[in-house]
Amino acid sequence: MNGPAMLRSLGAQVAHALAQRGVDVVFGIPGVHNIELYRGIEGAGIRHVLPRHEQGAGFMAIGYACVTGRPGVALVISGPGLCNIMTPMGQAFSDSVPMLVLSSCLDPDDDSSGSRLHEMKDQEGAAATVCDWSATAHDADGVRKLLDRAFAEFSASRPLPKQIQIPISNLSDLVSPIPDLDPVPGPPAISSDDVEAVAARIGRSRRPLFIFGGGARGAPAAALRVIERSGAAFFCTYAAKGIVRSNHVLGLGSALPRPESQVLLSEADLFVVVGSRLSETDLWREHLGHRCEMIRIDIDHSALSDKHGADVALHGDATRFLEDLADALPATARGSGWDPAHLERTRSEFRASADLERPGIARVADALVDAVGDETVIFSDMTQFAYVAKETVCLNMPNRWFHPSGFGTLGFALPAAIGASAAPGRRNVVAIAGDYGFQFTLQELATAAELGIGLPVVIWDNRALKEIEDCMTAAQIEPIAVAAPGPDLELLARAYRIGYARPSGLSEFGRAVVDGFSGNRPTVIHLTPAISAS
Q: Dihedrals φ, ψ of 24, to 5°?
């Protein structure tokens, strides 16, 4: 294995090491400083997707990770390439997405400071501000150690982005193959005694209430068994939407941020939070509003000791916990202390409030979900359409709607949807963006066209930064810099040689989306708020 015949450049060996670790697609842009990383890609059997900007590469890696559960990998050059991908790295960090960014870096022993191409004062330090860690490898052994560390942490702890950089001069060093990945540990399990204790607490409560977060979405069957055996009401964060079908009689949807939810939370006599950090964007308020004992289960220690606290804090994998808890609860479903009619009225009130804030969007979002079915994966951008839809639409499966909640970046939806479409396996994918945010990454339409992807790209066109305009008006600030007429979307689609549709009604909208799946090119589907009145 280590004879001269197996010697390759370090950059080429990196590609083969990635393939050994299960990487089958990478997203990136070659440049003079990272071309050695490209020497081994084809030989390693890895598919390369060429975005039109490094930000697109990062969001594509996130989209790939969302639908596969495996790390999304991106290749960028030193300096501006890394800077351009730092926004997606920040998004992956806030939303717990496994992502690996590999870059070149300048040689550390070069003393010509301030005069080198792509120079940064501290590239490793800059990257570390938006990811779990950033580290430099100078040789094959250093690469191996960092890859082993990254993939072990992806498996055994909260999945977070990592960044590995290699000095340019070292990338061309001839080295032996990088050894295969050592066996990685699984995530920590919660002891059977602790699971039994939680089951006993639930058995003694009259109105238990669960909050399911993104860390729990790998266990939909177990979550349903837990709800039906315990009689607990439940909320889902946006990241966990669909873990139990949204219209379940005990379900309260993704309405935690609604101020009215505090009333219902105060009625619970036991609170169980599974796999949620209860972040600002989960709640949009300082306090949950509960008055009872709270049990928290999370793989991240920091979530168990945050400002919300926990009367019982259990460190471990949320998926395994729900499976074990379902087995620990009595097999015969007990009666619920929650009044189903009360919960139904509460769900209706939540939807009415959302519709009142941004009128008409809820029914347009319903038309989309009704048309595409349960299996479709949706990526949304920071737009009013998504703010309403991710709260009000009913989903029957988890991992079907992805939104850039934590970092809140614009330009996410289109490239993330491309990354999901480029992952192995056939799936229907939809991107939803506002007319302004779409312009952050619209150039990736060329990537989708090049890949031959049947991807409906829904543009909610209100010719403004409407959410910001509404916020300014509410704060009694004269709206400024919020009128943003965009390009002629039909001409834009023609320029990229892709499809275009402007439906005039909701049924026509649904047909346009479904038709968009069947082609071999993306389709821009142009909506204005007027469609909600059709």
A: -120, -15
